[in-house]
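ok, trying the design again with the full structure, not the truncated one.
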């Protein structure tokens, strides 16, 4: 039975460095094996509004030859069950600790207590610069029996050599928490060319202690013009957990 997310109004402040890039026509090469991470055991009831504890990776940085693509490393993740027990809000932080920028993909799967998959989301990032972090948020609508997140990362492809990296700085502000929060976004780009719309926006929510408690997605409705600030309140599906007090942002965008 289809479920519909209804709009309520919400607020949060965050600042993040966002990377973006151009994926059209990227050269392909055989990616290295995917890296899979599974969060520590988490449990919640159908009426709980608290999130499962965020997981922080203790993996040491990899030593990789220059020019070789490596899958992003999962650094943190977390999730929350909605108050009515219907939906799951999730968020993930990944790091490109390889020597080369890439166009990676992230697959997030909700699994139950037995380890059986419930629902999967795959997201592609834009230009992911070496040595930086990126954030992925989203909503599962058929995973009320969730016990863990399983996250798989793939290195993807190298961007065009002539496609310059684009840094986008953004701030997100929400009023309140709940379903379909209205988030005010202010974004700037260092590019001399417009960052075209629609560009995918990922929001990852954190609680007062800094733990990830969920996330969601949206799209820009206007391009980010050189030397100007884009101010928008993008339409958002999903929900912001009651425990969310701040957000990190990544925009996966193209320059054209």
């Amino acid at each position: 039975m289809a479920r519909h997310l209804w709009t309520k109004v919400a607020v949060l402040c965050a600042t993040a460095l966002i990377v973006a890039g151009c994926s059209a026509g990227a050269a392909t090469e055989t990616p290295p094996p995917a890296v899979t991470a599974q969060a520590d055991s988490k449990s919640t009831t159908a009426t709980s509004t608290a999130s499962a504890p965020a997981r922080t990776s203790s993996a040491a940085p990899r030593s990789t030859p220059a020019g070789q693509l490596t899958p992003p490393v999962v650094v943190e993740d977390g999730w929350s069950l909605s108050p009515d027990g219907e939906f799951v809000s999730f968020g993930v932080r990944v790091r490109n600790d390889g020597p080369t920028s890439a166009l990676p993909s992230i697959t997030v799967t909700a699994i139950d207590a037995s380890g059986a998959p419930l629902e999967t989301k795959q997201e592609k990032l834009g230009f992911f610069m070496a040595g930086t972090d990126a954030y992925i948020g989203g909503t599962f609508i058929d995973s009320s029996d969730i016990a863990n997140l399983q996250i798989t990362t793939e290195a993807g492809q190298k961007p065009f050599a002539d496609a310059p990296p684009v840094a986008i700085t953004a701030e997100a502000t929400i009023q309140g928490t709940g379903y379909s929060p209205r988030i005010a976004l202010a974004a700037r780009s260092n590019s001399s060319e417009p960052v075209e719309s629609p560009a995918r926006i990922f929001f990852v929510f954190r609680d007062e202690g800094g733990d990830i408690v969920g996330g969601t997605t949206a799209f820009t409705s206007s391009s980010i013009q050189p030397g100007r600030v884009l101010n928008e309140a993008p339409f958002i599906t999903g929900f912001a957990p009651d425990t969310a007090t701040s957000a990190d942002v990544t925009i996966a965008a193209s320059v054209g």
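Keeping the full-length input from now on. The chain has a mean pLDDT of 75.
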